[in-house]
Amino acid sequence: MPEDTYKQLKDGNRKFVELTNLHNPEFFSSLSETQKPKALWIGCADSRVPANQITGTLPGEVFVHRNIANVVVHTDLNCLSVLEYAVNVLEVKLVVVCGHYGCGGVAASLSNKSHGMIDNWLNHIKDVRRLHRDELEAIEDEDERLRRLVELNVIEQVNNLCATSIIQESWQKRKLPYVHGWVYDISNGILKDVAEKVTSQHGISDIYRFEPKAKSVKP
Ligand code: CO
Fold first, then answer.
1. Does 96 share its domain with 113?
2. Any alpha helices (H) in 85-193, and if so which ranges?
3. pTM score > 0.90 for this model?
4. For the segment 115-160, what is each residue's pLDDT rounded down to a tens digit?
5. Catalytic: 44?
């Protein structure tokens, strides 16, 4: 019943406020002044993968962008705006792309079924599938193939992230942020590293490496 869900969420909020005030009476007043998150999280919209809970962090500690199947699309203004703000204004030190095993978006991209408009979004994961076609088709077990595509998707989205001008200009200026790729295992709650941390342009394909921008010269 929708009314029950409404009540559950509002009651939950009331309890959250009461408990937080009990344990830390300054919590809301100090957070209301500013935010200084240490990390940007780019994750799947899946309800089982909430960034704060699974990393044991509190409101204010992680800046979050989520979409279906944690995709970083070069022309996605939403994702790029979050990235730009996190890197250049909040100056986060770490950016994480986090996928998860059992991802419905990744599973759908392994089939040829039509799901409607979302097929166009999932085509970004089909691009990953095409790039790693031989490796994926050599895996006979369907669950294993899905797990591997979840990992490869994270690795490729980390590559996409590092290909952005935002990340590369930040590396040139302040040698940060670190970029990591993780996969969350819903069955045991553990985060696994799948993409090596990248901290400079040397870690990415030369095809995507931008030279530092030339300083503007006045006529
Ligand atoms: Co998912």
1. yes
2. 104-108, 118-131, 133-137, 142-162, 165-174
3. yes
4. 999 999 999 999 999 999 999 999 999 999 999 999 999 999 999 9
5. yes
pLDDT tens sequence across 171-218: 999 999 999 999 999 999 999 999 987 888 888 899 999 998 877 666
Rg (C-alpha) for the chain, rounded Å, is 20
- Whether residue 212 is contained in a domain is answered as no
Structure tokens at 162: 């590092």
48 is annotated as an active-site residue? yes
Report the domain count for the chain. 2
Question: Ligand 1 centre and the CA of 49: distance in Å?
Answer: 8
Told to judge if 100 belongs to the known catalytic residues of this protein, a careful annotator would answer: yes
Q: Print burial letters for 143-155: b (CB count within 10 Å at least 16), e (below 16).
A: eebbbbbbbbbbb
Domain around 134: 37-201
How far apart, in whole angstroms, are the C-alpha atoms of residue 107 and residue 102?
Answer: 7
Specify the CATH number for the domain of residue 70. Answer: 3.40.1050.10
Q: What is the DSSP code (8-state) at residue 85?
A: I
Q: Residue 65 contacts by C-beta under 8 Å, 6 or more apart in sequence?
A: 40, 41, 42, 43, 78, 79, 82, 83
Question: Which run of H or E residues covers position 63?
Answer: strand 62-67
Q: Choosing from 79, 98, 100, 145, which is the catalytic residue?
A: 100
Query: Which H or E element spans position 96?
Result: strand 94-100
